[in-house]
Amino acid sequence: MVLKMSITESLKKLVSCVILDLDGTLLHTDGIVSDVLRVYLGKYGKKWDGREAHKVVGKTPLEAATSVVEDYGLSCTSSELLSEINPIFSDQWCNIKALPGANRLIKHLSAHRVPIALASNSPRENIETKISFHQGWKESFLVIIGGDEVTSAKPSPEMPGVTAGKAAGMEVVAVPSLPKQSHLYTSADEVINSLLDLHPEKWGLPPFKDWIKDTLPIQPWQIGGPVIKGFGRGSKMLGIPTANLSTELYSTLLSEHPSGVYFGWAGLPTQGVFKMVMSIGWNHYFNNTEKTIEPWLLHNFDEDFYGEELHLIIVGYIRPEANFPSLESLIEKIHEDRKIAEEALDLPMYSKFRDDPYLISSS
Ligand code: ADP
Ligand code: RBF
Ligand code: MG
Description:
This protein has eleven helices and twelve strands. The chain is of the alpha+beta class and 363 residues long. The chain has a six-stranded mixed beta sheet, sandwiched between helices. It has a six-stranded antiparallel beta sheet with strand order 8-7-12-9-10-11.
């Protein structure tokens, strides 16, 4: 959930060490937590509400269990719940994905010989197991410390999160793992949307050198389905039509990708392959686990193509979602995004995905 950076308090920023949190910072643990609790509570006739995820993520296992028992009025004790649910969680650890930017950050800091520590509220043994599924992680951490290895209570630096980092005199960059939680991180020196937005040079660390022409290459991923009706705002309000895909079918996939502006290739089996720039964002009309995906195909179409199968390959990242003071400034920014995407997609590293058969496959 948070990324803590320790620096010596000298005139010139000199980072002695970077301390990383695990769940929600490096690992997409929320997905697994929600999946397991949904199934477990279902057996007791209760419905897991994703909106309560913030009460569970970042807590010690016992704290998390206590809040679930209380909130759902379960008849068991917290420790009974834990002993039932722990084996189910442990079975899933091998499936927890690295969050976007996590591998990149660990590799970058290791390559520059910046000491990295891992501090998490999980018990030490669980941390070791969770990271064992990610190649190169264990060797990268100089120190690993778990929730079961500390004793003093708050406000000692042993407490979790941003407060701990600040109490220890560190500079703290928070990466909230749940949407619309930034207000909880006011004491952080910076709040970023995902590790993709981390600029190490701000903290006296070596900069990333992988940005190319204002774009960051990402591990390509694909998504597709029939084009559905959105809210009719794209063309009407912005003059920018976005071919919306159903998020219901892809909530898991979308939860793995931070909101923001991305680009790649879009295929319509009957019409061909087009450059595409898109936003992934929170849809305020639905509950906060719902995100929308809004691709703008960079081509002038004579007609709408609602209902057609649209396949996307997303190859790069441009920027986080932002708020704008006016509609004009939003439109201007989106046109800037388009220009960046259009130019970048001619680079071989991105253009090679144009020929991927997935784009024009019919299912
Ligand atoms: P909605 O809110 O229903 O998504 P929009 O105003 O965003 O409506 O318009 C999107 C629709 O416009 C798409 O579903 C598609 O049928 C059509 N369309 C036409 N040209 C484009 C384009 N270049 N990119 C995306 N969609 C387009
Ligand atoms: N809306 C925002 O509120 N903030 C943004 O930063 C933002 N960026 C966008 C970038 C692109 C490339 C596109 C196509 C749209 C963007 N939108 C943004 C608009 C939003 O996703 C959506 O298209 C409109 O709200 C219309 O439904
Ligand atoms: Mg749209």
